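Continuing from the previous page of notes. For each protein in this section, the sequence appears first, followed by its structure tokens. Read the first protein now.
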Amino acid sequence: MAAGVKIRLSRAVAGEAVIHRMRPSSARFLLESPPLFLPLCTVSDMSTPDIEAVKNYLLSLQALICAALQEEDGKAQFLEDSWERPQGGGGRSRVLTEGAAFEQAGVNFSHVFGDQMPPSATAHRPELAGRRWQAMGVSLVIHPRNPYVPTSHANVRFFVAEKDGAEPIWWFGGGFDMTPYYGFEQDAAHWHRVARAACAPFGEDVYPRYKKWCDEYFFLKHRNEPRGIGGLFFDDLNEWGFDKCFAFMRSVGDHYIQAYRPIVARRKDTPYGERERDFQLYRRGRYVEFNLVYDRGTLFGLQSGGRTESILMSLPPLVKWRYNWRPAPGTPEAELYEVFLQPRDWLKGAV
């Protein structure tokens, strides 16, 4: 553990700050209702970023997602780990392990700041050099127990860099993507249908643009294959002004559970054996490779002095590598590569 980092462990209160006084039935109604923006905060018309409003939303989103996942698992509970970063800021990590549905689920909130940008940020944004900065976000990765349930990832984040006598430079980023081990077209279509719904209020071109960016971003160049079936990915978003950009980030965050939870419920009790489990562990290796080699959030966190345990909570608890392995033709494992790990419009013909 890094010197100066203070840790507090406790049981995470399901739904804190959002549904902390709701009965489970009320929480389920909220989570399964059509997507909506929760009245977490009010932002007046402005171009100046409201950092406190963003932070309040992110904390509430973390609580809501943890409540939904814990309810779906039905066995394990999230442990909360609050930490402080010696260079400035800190976070609240929540991790569920050894659950009935989830082998490991990590949902992290962080708000960190400093006086000097890390190289990963200034490499393509040299105008950020010499500015004070703040970064905050919620990032999560869910590794299911059953191989027929896909792994999912989501992230929503906000960044602002300031210096005296100049306008702040700010932007939003985030998205969500899904990584199946055994593909189901029903699940893929549902995932992308909800992604499209998250984008719909902001323009017809938004979903196709951010789906394409997701396909391009979550691609393992050294393997020449995508990580999964994609979803949404956006970054450097400030062109709409603060209010609309913030609203879009909230829409993406609010739609994640609506995209993922029905798939978990549909697949978590599917019978499986050693063969399916072995393939799941092998494919998890691709997840590890991407996160350690390409992922912007991982690189930024490590280079900015973030807490390593929280940054690397995205990695699966168990994983396998096998030299030059290929699935046998005509098997369900081969179908993943031939059908699901291919560029595709999953909503073609869908309403």
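Done with the first. The second protein uses the same format. Note its length before scrolling.
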Amino acid sequence: MYCLLLSLPLLGFFYLIYIYNMKKTSFSGIAPIFIAGPCVIESEQVLCQVAEEITAINAHLGIDIIFKSSFDKANRTSAASYRGPGIERGLQMLADIKSRYGLHILTDIHESWQAKPAGEVADVLQIPAFLCRQTDLLRAAARTGRTVNIKKAQFLSGRDMRYPVEKALDAGANEVWLTERGSSFGYNNLVVDFRNIPDMLEIVPTVVMDCTHSVQRPGGGGGHTIGDRRFVPSMALAAKAFGATGFFFETHPDPDHALSDGPNMLPLEQLEEVIKDILSIPTRN
């Protein structure tokens, strides 16, 4: 009994170290990085269906796809658009996916106060493109100890992204990624300048290509965003040729009936083949 009592503080100490390390998850040295999942949390059924497929792909290909979904799409085109279950219910659903399937989790935050609770569940906190210069949001995400993925704004160049990165690092971020997701080209249209990828690789070692949002036509559907998913595989392969070290896919079992960003989401049944094609191309030195 005496030995047990002496060991209790020690067990508590090791538990705290375990929790600390869990919160300091690092993806350094993993290349390429893959991120996939439904745009927004719609239901437990959709989350599980996508998670089961991702788990199977991980086993088939020996990779570690990070599961992505949003608890709140705060930047939808219309007030009538579906936003998600909200932070409390949404984070619980993501925590359930993490526990049940053993997947790493990425989710996005839109306000500084969301960083702390989201960081208790997610391994990667994502900063939306429209918000990538918001200093307080970047600093809050950085202080969680989680990896911070900053999406490049549609109005910024790749080289401009050194300043958001500096803000995150100054606040103590351990690992920062940058993501290319296209640039505004007139109204309701995006194009990808793939030169942004090598430019951003001069800032951080992990540059992700968002292969699905980059085929959007923002607001082009008269109150909702449309897109052209047939170009998603080509976006991925072109990004690989330019040196991208990560690839982001929003995917859904039935994109035509998805509640958000359906026109540019990759059908879940196509995800494995697209990843196989990426892996078949040698990494650019």
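What the second structure shows: The first helix runs from residue 2 to 23. The first strand starts at residue 33 and ends at 37. We return to this in next week's lecture.
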